[in-house]
Design a protein that fits this description.
By secondary structure, the chain is α+β, with helices and mostly antiparallel strands. About 40% of the residues lie in helices and about 20% in strands. The chain has four helices and five strands; from the N terminus they run βααββαββα. It has helices at about 10-25, 25-30, 65-75, 100-120, and strands at about 1-5, 35-40, 50-55, 85, 90-95. It has a five-stranded antiparallel β-sheet. It is globular. The two termini are about 25 Å apart.
Length: about 130
């Protein structure tokens, strides 16, 4: 499952790099996912600025791991701008480390894992039945 994290535009590049560095140092994240940086604008208008943390979660990585890593990062940086978490085209804005925020992270990731496991490859290019 692909998870994208991006900071608000005001300080997005620095915050994104800081979050990426934090996640790379977290053994649960580092050992159970693939982490990379990307530019969010493929047209090149941002001159290749790194704006998105891509996190490909392995099967052994749980939503709670990411929620806890985010909570620890946020606790160390309470004034950091909001972070957008996107999974399967659904996004939520994260600010602070309340129980509600952590629950929203877990819920979004759990929904993404359920959706991915419910998908089965189609033998032809016909549209999904309605």
């Amino acid at each position: 499952m692909l998870v994208q994290l991006r900071a608000e535009p005001d300080d997005g590049v620095l915050t994104t790099l800081d979050l990426y560095t934090w996640l790379r140092r977290d053994p649960d994240v580092r050992d159970h996912s693939r982490l990379s940086l990307d530019a969010s604008d493929p047209s090149g208008e941002t001159m290749g600025a790194v704006e998105v943390v891509n996190l490909v979660l392995g099967q052994t990585f749980t939503a709670l791991n990411l929620a806890l890593s985010y909570a620890n990062w946020r606790a160390a940086r309470p004034t950091a701008p909001a972070i957008s978490l996107t999974v399967d085209g659904r996004s939520i804005a994260l600010q602070g480390v309340s129980e509600e925020t952590l629950s929203r992270i877990v819920e979004l990731l759990a929904t993404g894992q359920t959706d991915a496991s419910d998908e089965s490859p189609r033998a032809d290019d016909s549209p999904e039945p309605v």
